Amino acid sequence: MELHITLEGRRDLIAQLYTQLREGIDSGRLAPGSQLPPSRLLAERLGISRKTVAEVYARLTYDNLLVGLVGKGTFVNVQTTSNRPTVPGEQLAGRAVLRQWREARMPMTQMLHSSVLAHDFLGGASSKNQFPEAGWRRCVLHALRQTGKARGVYSHPEGLPELRDAVARHIGFARGVRCGPQDLVISNGAQQALDLISRVLIEPGAAVVVEEPGYPPARLLFAALGARVVGVGVDEQGLKVSDIPDGTRLIYVTPSHQFPLGMPMSLARRHALLARALALGAIIIEDDYDCEFLYEGRPTPCLQSLDQHGLVAYVGTFSKTMLPELRLGYLVAPPALLNAVIAAKELVDRHTATLTQWALARFINDGFHIKHIRRCHELYASRRERIIQHFQGFLGEWFELVPATAGFHLAALCKRPFDIEKVISQARLVEVGVYSLASFAHFQPPRPGLLLGYGAIETLDIDIGLGRLLNILQRLK
Prior knowledge:
The chain is an alpha/beta fold. It has helices at 13-27, 39-46, 50-62, 95-102, 107-112, 133-149, 161-175, 189-201, 216-224, 267-280, 303-306, 335-349, 354-365, 368-392, 420-429, 459-474; strands at residues 35-36, 66-69, 73-76, 119-120, 184-187, 207-212, 228-235, 238-239, 248-253, 283-287, 312-317, 329-332, 399-401, 409-414, 432-433, 435-436, 449-453.
């Protein structure tokens, strides 16, 4: 890429060139560390003498804006600070919206990007060292061959037919979802699927129900799009359907493994939720985020398979079974929403990257995906059992586990009053990461407790981490 310089006429060439380069450096357009063209090449391109360019470079070097490195070239000084002019945020017409985005708290992001601890019970993280990299590499090479054959045009906004077919067969087999490839939209993670549904349903002031406590990114997304978000509490059977207010347009739930507490929604409560949604004319978003990992009892039918009226939008992700970095999710859209969601997807980002779509389709079709799930299921089951044993033992004096049959995190509620936040901070001092349930509540303070993820922590680290947690608790007596 050539350096953008424009000169007018033949007068004051040194001043013109100096002014443009200085403005480029001051504004940040020429970033610190950027290499400038050699004086001979720049002079040839601009049709001026090399002496003129050398003189300008010398002046900027004297002003400490450029630095010359012998044998390497001329560079923008890395110590240069940008003087790019800005309008204060409070003077902008859109200041109220900007303030809302600036002040949005992202507890999940803060949790995921906190300092790495030796014994970290991080929720939502999977066991990356179990991922079959060799098999995935083969699938990526296949994807490269497929994209090499493409015509160089944009792909289907709803996703590659090959991947939609593979996903439809997988979730039909594993979760009993009633759909065909034509009902699916491939998204950049489950979060984009939530965004697409919200875009086609939410207008300012629309009532949206979320679980309380619940998944903060969903609540924040709905609010950012102008919804009037209503938190409805949960009990041992899941969302309290009787508390859903009149006028609700959208209901977001995690029925298979309530986030963050973990209890599954009972079958009776599922039928009640479907009936309430029908009476309201509301759409239900069923977020089945870690549905593949079931450890006890028989699977409960997903809401989508029970739906007889086209009210459930089923959202899934490969972040839990594959890698979060891939950003691959999917949406089974009810017929009334499908075309609108596809239009929104095309408008937002055209389509999800086809390279990863081709690779994932091959990964599923060649059996790598189901084999990986089975390996992780066995590993997670053993880690889960180890945590349960600790809380049935000495930790049972302090906490009670919320009964959960699926996923790869557990919630532990405090049985007696103590400063849970102090315990969490002291645990971090001894390299133990446990997380407060308070981060997932917004509308009312939750019962104090901990979220304990076991997807990423090694099995041997569970004993050490929970042993250190017990020592901290015993010092409170």
